[in-house]
Amino acid sequence: MRPESEEELAALVAGARCPLRVIGGGTRPVGHPPEGAVLSAAGLSGVVTYEPGALTLVVRAGTPVADVEAVLAGENQRLAFEPMDHRALLGTAGVPTIGGVVAANVSGPRRVQAGACRDFLLGARFVDGAGRVLKSGGRVMKNVTGYDLVKLLAGSWGTLGVLSEISFKLQAIPEAEATVVRRGLSAAAGVAALSAALGSPFDVSGAAHAPAGVLADEALTLVRLEGMGPSVRYRAGRLAEAGGEIVEAGESADLWRRIRDVQPFAGRAGALWRVSVKPTDGPVLSERLAAAGLKHEALFDWGGGLVWLLVEERGDAGAAVIRAQVAASGGHARLERASAQTRARVPVFPPRPAPLAEIEAGIRARFDPRGIFNPGLMG
Length: 379
Hints:
The chain is an alpha+beta fold. Helix content is about 30%, strand content about 25%. The protein is built from 12 helices and 17 strands. The chain has a 5-stranded antiparallel beta sheet.
């Protein structure tokens, strides 16, 4: 099913007599493989309203991300949260849609400075499990009280409703970009350097560490700066005083695309985990996993707080040891890439504490009383 309008979408949901597997462009097969008839929002495409002067965009959920970025680039603007393209990493085809980005709260390296996808949402329209069209928020940022439904939808993976239209606040594309590159640091020393840079007054917009053999033969510690040309050159120069070289413009942008899309682990055998911990706990986690006998490769983004782990896909794909160590750090781990067979038997999303699980069940019952949207995907 591929509705071409919000009205058609609402009618299809209202008349559904079986579970619905809700997708955008079908580029992110993450989660427990859900059953049901495929309902794609990709037919709901196009820009509704774009006001460059107000830095706001209203767009239909099925609009390809590339189309959104092209429209914004024409006015020297961008989506500040830097959504990644999962296709190479997950080995999928299809076209990433902006609704899929919101549903998964996809946020790239700039999250350390600008925030996550959900932080740039002004409003949304969606169809709930009863086939009702609901609206939350608008085209301007307001101070409100009550339930922040727009942010609730971000990261709900299509389990609460099907997005039909989304409003964003935007960001101007900066004049210049540069990256300070330090070579040969251990993971602990690299993350310490990232923490120092993030704690400096130099407004860092990217902070990542790739151990030896991941991005290059030697370890690379990367700090990105953006803004007016003279300011970028000054800030990069100051950070490079601690050691390192400066790369600029296209070379810098290419480095961050590789980090954003986790390109070093694309096309390689193995299961891939996405782990969130306190930045300083990233290297510690890797060390503990190695001590526990789990062979892995790691890539650290978000100053060390986002850890991508490539492990062998056998048994539980390292789930027991990874989740035990992550829980000890107060973080959480999601199985981002594995075969359908592994995803069917290994919990993909981290188990929730009973009180939180009860709250989630109550929210789902409110917005999807029949339980038809992506059943079991997050279970």
